[in-house]
Amino acid sequence: MGQQIPISSSFNLPDGRQVTLETGKLASLADGSVVVRIGDTMLFATVVSSKEAKAGQDFFPLSVDYQEKFASAGRIPGNFFRRETKISDYEVLISRLVDRAIRPLFPDGYMNETQVIIHQISGDKENLPDAYAALAASAALAVSDINFPDLISEVRVARINGVFHINPLRDALKEADMDFIVAATMDNVMMVEGEAKECSEIDLIDAIKLAHEAIKVQILAQQDLANKVGEKALNKRSLAEIPQNEEVKNLVALKCTDKIAGIARAASDKATRKAALDSVKKELKENLLAEMGEEWFAQNQSFISSYYDKVKKETIRGIVLNEKVRLDGRGLKDIRSIWCEVDYLPSTHGSAIFTRDR
Question: Fewer C-beta neighbours within 10 Å, C or N terminus of the chain?
């Protein structure tokens, strides 16, 4: 019986190390599956998504799970635990980094239950797997028929002895004084997470720019893989049409835009602002119920809430960007005052309070 030959694509990191993406060998019944390999480190990502959303569902049920198995390094958990246990806090954080990067990129109104699972199936001592988790997830989406218009990737950018490195080796990372994971599409940076032993703003900007250039190379490799897969990856599922109601949209905008703008310009505290916005929404519903009647209101209640939230977001965002003033009256470069106190708890190893003004 012949060996299954996978479809693959590859790219090089800035230091010359080769990363390979392959599909078609594992989990062929998943909507999309990809193995990412660098050295002896291999991540296996699968993605599945329901063909239809559940009736009445008004949120996107996406779950992302990342796990590093002991077995990937040829080890078995010792002592009491002989099987793989629940994922660690570190694995939860990596799952969240992937989730945070891909969740906003699914189409508006997409409510189909979707599951992304990423497992480290092989590991070496030098190549850290966490920086490749989002690459694996995005590549699995790329070769699937799931609608995911903007591919992404994540890389670690670290400054070691004054020089920036992309996805440095484990031992080298110990000497880093900047360590960030950056996620981005081809055009936009989606997320930055990390730490530093103090760094200047210009150094952080340079690190993000370098990371973004590396990510662009990785996205091109995903696109190449999808092109090689062909019809399944290129012909995405048709999306269910999102119900719209221009009449309700225009009514909400007419009745609320000026009121929301007034609240946004009032430089109020958070609690006062929230109460005022809730009052506008309540008044909107009461007025529409009185003007349009109970039957019309019952049919369009979900549209009213949805369009109110959109008008609120667009109005406030426009004021902040165009008038350069935040909701509490600060300019874009003003920082909220803060107070700190250490040794608040008498018996602990250490404690601190860190509180900004509301």
Answer: N
Rounded (to 5) percent helix, strand, coil in the chain: 40, 25, 35
CB 121 within 8 A of CB 72: yes
Q: Which three-class secondary structure state does DSSP give residue 282? A: helix
Cα 301 from Cα 248, distance rounded (Å): 9
What pLDDT, in 10s, does the model give residues 247-279? Answer: 989 999 999 999 999 999 998 888 899 999 999
What is the token pair recorded at 169? 């080796």
Contact 171, 198 (CB under 8 A): no
3 state DSSP class of 194: strand
Residue 113 pLDDT: 92
**Residue 84: pLDDT band by 50, 70, 90 thresholds?**
low
246-358 has which fold?
Arc Repressor Mutant, subunit A (1.10.10)
Question: Taking the domain 7-234, which CATH number applies?
Answer: 3.30.230.70
